Amino acid sequence: MPWAKEVLANFLTENIRAVVRDEVLDPLRDRGKLFGGSRIFNNLLSSQPLCFNLFAELRFDLGSASRLVAEMTRGRFCEVTAIAFEHSPSRSDPEYSSDRSAFDVFVECRTSSGGRGFLGVEVKYHENLRVAAARHRAPYDERARQMGCFAPDAMDRLRKTPLQQIWRDHLLTGAVRARDGFDDALFVLLFPADNRHCQAAAEAYRAALTNEQSFACWHLEEVVGHLQRNEPTSRWAAKVFDRYCDFDKIERAIA
Question: pTM for the complete prediction?
């Protein structure tokens, strides 16, 4: 810094840098969003730049976005109509979450039956979800009751680290679906397959659910693999793999 912020060196293409200028550097559009200070610009391991590097190019190619979503959801969601970042419809509004929760990526789309749907995506890279739990708020329990997918004996676990952040974003998914009239919605936790902390948290979270209709885990390698298979001429997909998924680099460096 400040060079990293001036040239946006943490971002892989000019299209991605253009989205970052709009979403992060524009003082009006950035208002109320919780981007993490300098780390979005100068930390190669932060999940925030990963969100943009993985999804911002798809804003310019909704056809590719639609193919990705259709494959990852087995056709449940199909035509992508919009992609937003650090999205919350109304922070701290009790009609939604009563806190400042937001989706890292918000993908609005059509369902297989032609209805309105969305995916709310939480992206992790190296992060381990071992952050201090936020203050519990009464609306969480009411929203959980309305969603009807949580085991009654799991509520204490859901209120604590490492599950609380996942739970709060999942609750926001249910709130947005109900409040804004969506026909279907899915909360997605996305992380590298070998992030053992996230994998363990995801398994524990699944154990707290009575059904998984509104929750899914995606591995970063699956998403990038789809992009490489289906967008073979895209230099961007190759750059994403090189930056975030080519762990053989580490083995070669050690050797």
Answer: 0.92
